[in-house]
Amino acid sequence: MELKIPPPVTSGSLTFKVNRREPELVSPAKPTPRELKLLSDIDDQEGLRFHIPSIFFYGNNPNAYSDPVALIRRALAETLVYYYPLAGRLREGPNRKLAVDCTGQGVLFIEADADVTLAEFEKKDALRPPFPCFGELLFDVEGSSEVLNSPLILIQVTRLKCGGFIFGIRLNHVMADAGGLSLFIKTIGEFARGCHAPTIPPTWERHLLSARVPPRVTQTHREYDEPATAETEPATGDGETLVSKSFFFGGAEMSAIRRLLSPDIANSSTGIETLTAFLWRHRTAALRPDPNKEMRVIFIVNARPKLKNPTLPRGYYGNAFAFPVAIATARDLAEKSLEFALRLVKEAKASVTEEYMRSLADLMVAKGRPAFSTDGAYLISDVRNFADINLGVWGKPVYGGIGTAGVVDFPGSSFYVSAENRKGERGILVPVCLPEKAMQRFVEELEGVFNGQSVVSSTGGNKSHGKLIVSCL
């Protein structure tokens, strides 16, 4: 039975209709074990108890004779035989400990059609987050976004008129991180190509990131600071209309940012470290918080390379990252150079060691699985690996990443997405969500830097870089 056809969806100047069929449950293709599997103490922290959506656009492959919906549905069922915990439901035990009841009930799946082509998305410059049509391309089935006792994954495959399709997926974050989700989708792609088993077999092994007995919090974890009780001026423009835009940082933009730095630190810092410090500094300036307000940048650090005793198996798909935080007052960020912010970012990133991760797991148990502090915070996650997700015969996506800026009730987050600009140059696309007036100032901040006129007071920001307009999509 088909759902009622909704009114046309508008994405920028692009208008189209989406016709969805009734949601269904896709279960593992073969019987799977019925058991209760504990999550790790990194998995079940409060800050991951939400469903996070992603979206992938795939072009038409004339050699793909199968219907993408039918093929992906079948490949999904085969994938769930190996990833069978994802077909279960979450339960909460004593001390808020989460476990998966491996019921085999399945994941939610929606078949849909849209009367639009991929070329129309590209022509209208609508292949960028935030997608105003996102809710139609990954429909929020009523009751499906609860943390407990709900499907852990929602997938919608939307056929396009050109033969391409859109693959939307929403995951309960406690089950996997970006690396784990990539493994899962790549396995669907392998089965869609006719493989009989995953190239990288998934591994549960969540006990490898469980707390020690007794817990020993040996590191400083300021990302979990308790909220201040005193009244403070909000740093997010509370009450204003929120606006989302995407900003492209290619070679020219990154070169302009590096010229704000001394050669030594510019050459010893990664592009991601540099961009993170830059965005933190100029976003703070755009918000205009109280000068004494502590501003934070929280960025996801993959801990897999840090863990040696023991190492995590290659197929481990649980959460294996930390939220290190850099902290400075708004005044210091404004008055000191970009180098000041960058050094803080590098120090926070370097703090993530194996002992840091063990201490973090212990903190979760000792303090009741707290959420990270969002007061004055800007969270950044790197999901550029989504651009490499090969989904069977259709290859890599034309766009693969996040569909919106911000997550759930926390608009102060951005994601680094790998993308191309109109010239075919690959760079980093960053969706940003800010109050309307702050967004205007943020655009001005970036244009000031790229046009050689530093808006933020900076000892290193007064050099002329020539004319370069920021790409705001």
UniProtKB/TrEMBL annotation:
Cross-referenced Pfam families: Transferase
GO molecular-function term, one example from the UniProt record: transferase activity
Family matches, as InterPro entries: CAT-like_dom_sf, Plant_acyltransferase
Keywords noted in UniProt: Transferase
Family to which the UniProt record says this protein belongs: Belongs to the plant acyltransferase family.
Name this polypeptide is given: (Z)-3-hexen-1-ol acetyltransferase
